[in-house]
Amino acid sequence: ETVLTQSPGTLSVFSGGRATLSCRASQSVSSYLAWYQQKSGQAPRLLIYAASSRATGIPDRFSGSGSATDFTLTISRLEPEDFAVYYCQQYGSFPYTFGQGTKLEIK
Amino acid sequence: EVQLVESGGVVIQPGGSLRLSCAASGFTFDDYTMHWVRQAPGKGLEWVSLINWDGASTYYADSVRGRFTISRDNSKNSLYLQMNSLRSEDTALYYCAKGGLKITGQFDHWGQGTLVTVSS
């Protein structure tokens, strides 16, 4: 099983600032990595797939990078609605796995 | 507009059985791989199972293999999860999610979930 480790567990950033979230895989997942945003009481929403492709309707403030075992989600010009929990997920091998999540909170 | 609506979640005793359903609309259901993903209260996301477009290929997480069965009825645009021998650790919000045209792919739409509580 591919274990995904996200860091940090909680990230505090000022509104208008930039957030950098990390996801590290225990083995290579190539570019088969996605990022999801989950707000309290809501279903997850796809942000990024194939490590760096933005999903439909996702603003360009969200960007993904990385390959193999190290991935980053960067959120620029943070807006109040961006404060949520973010999960990475690999779909390169079974079982598909998620990271434990990073909570992005307002500083 | 893609819509996924789960149903069937209840409070059930350990050892019991339950079938969850997911009604899909807004896309050509029988083209796509579908998934079940769960989230225990206050916890992260856990992928549960996958079924390909025609039901010929299924995959399961180790934690549910042998107890849960995923299926679909393309004539009804519906996805199912038969859950047997339920345990307290199966307590979670169960989401139905739309995958891609191939087995490998991200989850681009999610339902709102149905809550399963396993408790005596």
Textual characterization of the structure:
The complex is a heterodimer of chains A (107) and B (120). By secondary structure, chain A is mainly beta. Helices cover 0% and strands 50% of the residues of chain A. The radius of gyration of chain A is 13 Å and the shape is globular. With 120 residues, chain B is mostly beta strands. Chain A binds chain B through residues 1, 32, 34, 36, 38, 42-46, 49-50, 55-56, 87, 89, 91-92, 94-101, and chain B through 35, 44-47, 50, 59-62, 95, 104-113.
- What's the total helix number of chain B? 0
* N→C terminal distance of chain B: 40 Å
> How many strand units of chain A?
11
**How are helices and strands ordered from N to C of chain B?**
EEEEEEEEEEE
Secondary-structure content class of chain B: mainly beta
What's this model, at a glance?
The complex is a heterodimer of chains A (107) and B (120). By secondary structure, chain A is mainly beta. Helices cover 0% and strands 50% of the residues of chain A.
SSE layout and pairings?
The complex is a heterodimer of chains A (107) and B (120).
Chain A: E1 4-7, E2 10-13, E3 19-25, E4 33-38, E5 45-49, E6 53-54, E7 62-67, E8 70-75, E9 85-90, E10 97-98, E11 102-106
Parallel strand pairs in A: 2-11
Antiparallel strand pairs in A: 1-3, 3-8, 4-5, 4-9, 5-6, 7-8, 9-10, 9-11
Chain B: E1 3-7, E2 11-12, E3 18-25, E4 34-39, E5 45-51, E6 58-60, E7 68-73, E8 78-83, E9 92-98, E10 109-110, E11 114-118
Parallel strand pairs in B: 2-11
Antiparallel strand pairs in B: 1-3, 3-8, 4-5, 4-9, 5-6, 7-8, 9-10, 9-11
